[in-house]
Each structure stands twice: as C-alpha cells, then as structure tokens.
Design goal:
alpha/beta; TIM Barrel; 17 helices; 57% helix; binds flavin-adenine dinucleotide
Length: 407
C-alpha cells in the first residue's frame, strides 16, 4: 500500500520512474528527442498513416518506438505485463480499446463485443476499475452529425432538443440510432453488473451533442447507487462549464449521480480550423489561460459536490492535479475519497502519476491497446500533442534525463 505523505511534489524522478528499466528510459529519451522536432512530427504524422495503409514495411519501426511508449499491446493479453507492473506501484489502469475510424454495422457490433470482453477482463484484474469507450467506434459519424444538426432547433432544453431531433430522422436512421443506443446500453449494463466504470470519451464538437445526450440517459439508468457511467467535459470549450452545471442540476432532479471526467480537450487545432473554414464562432476558449481557468473551476465545483459527483481529473497539468489535492485538504476530505480519481495517458507524465500514487491518491494510467494499424490515429495525436503543447516534451525529456543522471 502507498504511504501517505504530507507534501506532494512532482519532481521526484526516483518515484516517477521506479517502474522503468534503464533500457526503457533510454528508449523514451530518444523518442521524446525525436518528437521535439516539429518538422519531423509534421512529416511523420502525414506520412505514417499513408505508409501503413499502403502496406509499406514500417511496422517494426513503429512497434519499437512510438507504439511501445504509448500503447499497452496489440491484444488484451499483452496489456497484462504493463498493468501488473503498474499495480506493483499502486497505479490503476483504464483500458482503452483503441480502434478508431472503422465504420459499418458489423464493425460497430464487433467493437461492442470487444468492449464487453474488456469489461469482463477488467473485472478479473485487481487494478482495472474503468474502461473507456468512443461512441464513434459504434455509430456512424454522419448520423451523429445529423442528430446534432436537428438538436440545434431546440437550444433551450437539451434533452427535449435531442428527442425532437430523433423525430427528424428517417425510419431507417431511427432504427440505426436505436442500434447504437442498444450497443451502449449493453456495455453500460455489463459495466454495472461487473463493477467496472465506463468512461465515454469526448470527441469533436460537431458530433458531441448526441454523445452527451446518450451519456446522460445512461447515467440516469446506471448511476443510481454507484457511478458506472462517466461523460467527458472538454474545458477548452467555452460552453462546457455551464454545461457541467446544467448536467449536475439534471442529475439532482433525477436523483442519480454524475460521473464527470474533466479534460481540457484534444482537438483544438481541428476545431479552430473547421470553425474558421465554415465561418462560425469557434467553440474553443480564446486562450490557454481561459481553458485553465474553466478546468480548475469545474474541478472545484466537482470536489465541492463529491457526495453527488464522481470526478476524474484527467490531465497532465501539474497545477490542476495539485489543485485537486489542495481542494480535498481544504474540505477535509481524504485523498483516497472514493469519488475522486486522477489519470494520465500511458507513456506521459509519470512524475504526476507515481508521485500521486505514493501519496495515497487513487490514480491510473489510460492504457490503449489494439492492432498497430488500428491505433495509428491515437499515436498520431500523441505525437502531435507532444510537439504542439509547448513545454510537454521539454518537461518529459528533462525529467527522463534527470533520472538517468541520478541512476
Ligand atoms: C486520462 C485522459 C483522458 C483523456 N480523454 C480525452 C477525451 O475523452 N477527449 C479529449 O478531447 N481529450 C482527452 N484527453 C486529452 C486532453 O483533452 C488534453 O488534450 C491533454 O490531456 C492535454 O491537456 P492537459 O490538461 O493534460 O494539460 P495542459 O498541457 O495544461 O493543457 C494543454 C491543453 O490546453 C488546451 N490549450 C492549449 N493551448 C490553448 C489555447 N491557446 N487556447 C485554448 N486552449 C488551449 C488544449 O486543450 C491543450 O490540449 C484525455 C487526457 C487524459 C490524460
């Protein structure tokens, strides 16, 4: 069991990297050095998906570099080694079956079955309390877009707008959407039965409304006594703080618990570019400070309502991660309160994860897995994030170098 310590800092690299061999460290150092070259990442993220699609022989290179850093394995069984290693250091795992961008009913059903298999597997492991899902893995993107368009007609009442928009679908589309809901329902019900939480990822703003609507309905059904279903709130959007407040009121009225995963958001450039191209107001905050401000405000709100909200602090931001700790202390709540959990992506910010775990916080790594070709979009986002987010690569590299020198 981790020993609670009084002051938490994130600069102890001995704790941060105790789970990694010397060879692992050298590998990460090389990779983060490469990713600190924006031109290389720009070319790499354009060429890699194309090369993989064309069947060019780059699999071994990818497997031994970026895949090894950010992914748990190609199969569920392969993730075991990673999750056992994390467990030895008091860190949990959120399993993320990382297949993206596959459309068609057969693929959607297959994804549902895989998520259910992942939940059952998680329930059999000591340190996998959650799994994450993407609705676009089980629904046609264009259908989500169409439902969202319909929801625009009723902006005053979110749930009514959702129901009204379903009436605008053709009969075939209505049936198609019912199948999507049935898939999500099957996953949430298995999660509830097996005691494994289901985190619904947030995606692009132009398909997010139906995802939010179905997430709320699932929470209403499955979050009665304990929290099984979590929705994700992207605080880089300027409308999300008030949306979180509205959702909370909806949960209170319906007498169920809110599961809230707080993130800043992963699609900033894409969101801004689309808004500019199509001539509508960007949904993204004007600057980073505004995103940070809303993130921390959302965090404070959730921690103040831990009796009714289970909050997941999904961030690599050191200040926000520590702010959650200071809020708990201020409110005289235990660091291992059952309604708060921190999480970072596997391969990033080990200094936050392992120092929080050592202090007695409930913390996990978000661990994607899946065939190499299927996790390419995820890998490309990680590469971009580690160059576009100024400072992230520098920080990782500095800590890794510091630890190698210490050893
Ligand atoms: C466990 C986990 C789960 C996640 N799940 C999701 C998910 O479901 N959906 C999703 O979209 N993302 C998800 N993310 C990614 C997340 O949204 C962020 O992209 C990433 O974590 C970086 O933000 P940060 O809080 O860690 O740190 P920071 O480095 O403090 O923040 C970087 C973020 O700030 C925002 N930002 C940067 N510059 C500006 C600017 N000029 N103006 C406005 N905002 C700016 C962007 O969102 C950027 O990614 C997840 C992350 C984690 C750790």
């Amino acid at each position: 069991m981790p020993t609670p310590t009084k002051t938490i800092t994130f600069d102890n690299t001995e704790i941060a990297f105790a789970h990694r061999s010397d060879q692992d460290l050298s590998h990460s150092i090389l990779l983060f050095r490469l990713m600190s070259w924006p031109v290389l990442v720009k070319i790499g993220t354009r060429l890699t998906p194309w090369m993989v699609k064309k069947g060019l022989p780059i699999s071994t290179l990818l497997r031994n570099t970026i895949f090894r850093q950010f992914v748990g394995g190609e199969t569920l069984a392969e993730t075991r080694k990673v999750s056992d290693n994390l467990h030895a250091f008091g860190v949990d795992v959120i399993l993320d079956y990382g297949v993206e961008g596959k459309e068609g009913e057969a693929n959607f059903d297959q994804a549902r079955d895989e998520f259910i298999r992942v939940i059952r597997y998680a329930a059999s492991c000591p340190n996998i309390p959650f799994i994450s899902i993407k609705v676009t893995g089980m629904a046609r993107f264009a259908l989500l877009e169409k439902i969202q368009e319909g929801m625009k007609s009723n902006r005053t009442n979110f749930q009514k707008g959702y129901l009204a928009s379903l009436n605008l679908l053709t009969q075939d589309e209505q049936q198609e959407w019912e199948r999507v809901c049935a898939r999500l329902n099957a996953i949430a019900s298995t999660g509830a039965k097996e005691g494994v939480g289901v985190l619904i990822d947030a995606e692009e703003s132009w398909i997010q409304d139906p995802i939010d609507a179905i997430a709320l309905l699932l929470m209403q059904q499955y979050n009665r006594e304990r929290v099984t279903v979590f929705n994700t709130y992207q605080l880089y959007r300027h409308d999300r703080l008030s949306f979180l407040f509205d959702n909370f009121k909806f949960c209170q009225r319906g007498d169920f618990l809110l599961g809230a995963k707080l993130v800043r958001g992963a699609y900033m450039e894409k969101e801004r570019a689309r808004a500019q191209k199509m001539g509508y107001e960007s949904p993204i905050q004007p600057d980073k400070r505004a995103s940070d401000w809303d993130y921390d405000a959302a965090l404070a709100f959730c921690v103040e309502h831990l009796d009714q909200i289970f909050v997941m602090v999904a961030s690599h931001n050191e200040q926000s991660s520590l702010y959650a700790v200071s809020l708990l202390r201020e409110l005289k709540q235990a660091l291992d309160h059952p309604h708060i959990h921190w999480s970072q992506l596997y391969g990033m910010s080990d200094n936050i994860t392992f120092n929080l775990a050592k202090a007695g916080c409930s913390v996990s790594k978000y661990l994607p897995f899946g065939p190499l070709t299927d996790v390419i979009p995820y890998l490309m986002r990680r590469a971009q994030e580690n160059t576009s987010v100024r400072g992230q690569t520098g920080r990782e590299l500095r800590l890794l170098l510091q630890e190698r020198a210490r050893r």
